[in-house]
Each structure stands twice: as C-alpha cells, then as structure tokens.
Design brief:
The protein is an all-alpha fold. The protein contains seven helices and no strands. The chain has helices spanning 3-18, 22-29, 33-41, 48-58, 62-66, 69-72, 87-110.
C-alpha cells in the first residue's frame, strides 16, 4: 500500500470516529474543502506539509501516520496469485522463503 493511501485511510477513519467533516479539516489546515476532498479521494498527491498537519490534528507522529498498521502490528502478509506450475518458479519461491526465514532469524539475534 502506498504512503498516500495509508495516510488517506487513517485520516478518513479518524474523521468518522471523531464525527468531523471535510469542512472542519479544511479549516484546520487552511485550505478549501474541495482540496481536502480531492486529497482524501486520492486525486491529489499529499504534500509533506499536509501530512505533518494531519498528524498533528490526529494527535500522532508523522511516522505513525505514514506507517502501515499491518507492519506496526508485526503481521506481514505475502499474497501470491496463480499457482506454481514449473520447477523454476518452485525454486524461486523456496529461495524467497529461505531469505525470509534467514532475515527473521537474524532479526531475533539482534534483539
């Protein structure tokens, strides 16, 4: 998931939870309601200063705002589409799984 999408998702979720409107958010960051609408629909790329303002309004750090909840909770998911139909693809998957397990073992040693 892209950083833009993560931020948008968190801001929209927070607005709903706090029962706040796009108009209220626009007033807080000093832009028009239509610009907030475009940003939260993903039609405008979020500028770094807007991300910082959103984080301040949500009461979290910028790092927390841009970080995926999946990663924050320590649950990583790999989704594979299709099936392994030949030896080469099976070897590549085995190689990937080996690299993941190696990384996890190294990470535990560091902690």
């Amino acid at each position: 998931m892209k950083t833009n999408d993560i931020v948008i998702s968190k801001v929209i979720k927070w607005l709903k939870a706090e029962d706040k409107s796009y108009q209220w958010l626009a007033e807080q960051i000093g832009v028009s309601k239509s610009l907030v609408g475009l940003m939260l629909k993903g039609e405008r790329t979020l500028k770094s200063d807007h991300i910082e303002q959103f984080a301040k309004i949500l009461g979290i750090t910028t790092k927390e705002l841009v970080q995926s909840d999946t990663i924050k909770e320590g649950r990583l998911t790999v989704s594979l589409l299709g099936e392994l139909s030949n030896r080469h693809s099976k070897r590549e998957l085995d190689s990937l799984l080996f690299a993941i397990n190696d990384y996890l073992a190294l990470k535990e040693q560091v902690q």
